[in-house]
Write a structure and sequence with these properties.
9% of the residues lie in helices and 55% in strands. It is built from 3 helices and 28 strands. The strands form 2 sheets. It has a 22-stranded antiparallel beta barrel. 27% of the residues are buried.
Amino acid sequence: MVSEARKSDRTKRISAKRLEVKESWFLAAFLVLFGATAVWAGEPKKAFSVKYISTDHVYLSGGTAQGLAVGDGLIIMGKGRIKASLEVDFTAEHSASCEVLQREGEIRIGDVAIKAEEIGKLANPPAPAAPPPTEPSPVRPRAFGARRLASVSGTFSAVYYNWNDNSPSGLDFSQSSARLNLKAHRLWDKEITFTLRARGRYDRRSRAYSSTVPQNEWVRNINELSFAFGGEKSRVNLYAGRIFPQRVSAVGYLDGALLEKRFSDFFRAGVFGGVQPEFMYTDVGTALNKGGLYINYARGSYQASRLELTLAAAASYHGSHVSREFLFLQAYGGLGKHVSIGQNVEVDYNRSWRREKMGRMFSLSSLYSFARFRFNEQFSASLNYDRGRNYWTYETQSIADSLFDRRQREGLRLQLDFDRLSKYYGFAGAGARRRSGDARPTYTYTAGITRRELFTRHTSLNALAAAFSGPLQNGYNFSIRADQYVFGNNYASAGWGLYAYQGSGNASRRVNHAFDFSLRVDLAYRLFFSGQLQYSSGDDIQGSRFQGEIGYYF
């Protein structure tokens, strides 16, 4: 019996090993096949590297094309603890800026920011099944009033910004704003989450710039107001309110609902529908209905190996008139921290008036491919390629064909990174971008280096240089910055930058300089203050700016 049991265990181990090898070979085959049809670069869609740091913002090497959305929370880890908490407040296609909500240590260029939801998965793995108790446990009655309504977290802050224009144009500008970010987890001890993100600002200008930009104006936006019913392991998830469909980022914000069904640990499908929020319209008379569906397959982890695919179909309509119909494909594959590749594709389906505008039934509106290779703990390389063109929608159909930019845009970029003994971080990159009709591409070059622990453990110095050469202009910029962390989240920073450019032909070179000083201080009772003072001078700009923020963590 003992011998048979050992054989059985050995057979199970061999079968498990074979399954693991098969999955590895399958994933490797996917990487090779994908690599043959895509140009690569960058980070996984839930992990993004820090590429620049300002006073109170961190800039990441990933944007909407990689699944980032305004309001997303991210965490920067360091030595087994959280160094900083971030929130995305602006996204471009392949980059994003994040507000620093909380800082427990020094943020460095090259640090990796991970979506907060992924941190939760790593920090809370499924618990092993507990053995059955030998005797019944006594049932303790719940104390009256002991049930907590929810676990609430977030920030509230007031911000003042002022630009004093010393140039002859005298375009002074000031802005007073307030921000509220609130998230309530496990409402009534259930898998229910409430999220609210709101912004309000009052702009004051020295004079009106145009008929659409008045001298004074109030702007109020509710970026997100939603309830989420269910969790990552729930069979059915429902999101309702003002939401952002994370798995189909190209759809944008939606006032409506999303229903998702999880069929297994690896496969799920969802359907969504609603209307586009008012703040996203360029014409206040426009009203767009949105809807679509998607399927998602995800298996593995970012630490070992992972394969994830999302295929979606989405559409928007103004009444019975089509605004946009398109297909969306997102793919990611990775072998631990050594290789990661991915691709996002949007293909427009043109019918009715859009067929007449485009001249064909299908058109490629966006393609982004990326890959990252880590050779060892010190050196890595990334390569990315993007290609796209503007597409017609209900709001743009009245624009004259001669004014609508149909030109195709594409770009390629290579970057090398190194991190030496945790004290030096550096990178160098080069790229080229071109629009159809340009006489030649625009070439860009960047390089930067950061020296950590310069005088003390909390002092750093970084320098950044960049240059470009295009068909109409060429130029360069250089900046240097010193950061000093005192304790906790408190720090001071000072920097200087130069930007120079020259037009084609015999145009004279124009040069601009900027000096700035930044400060962040944690006050009592969870209050904090951050501020920046900057002075700019040169051929194009003369003036000073100040920004101050006081806020409260809860």
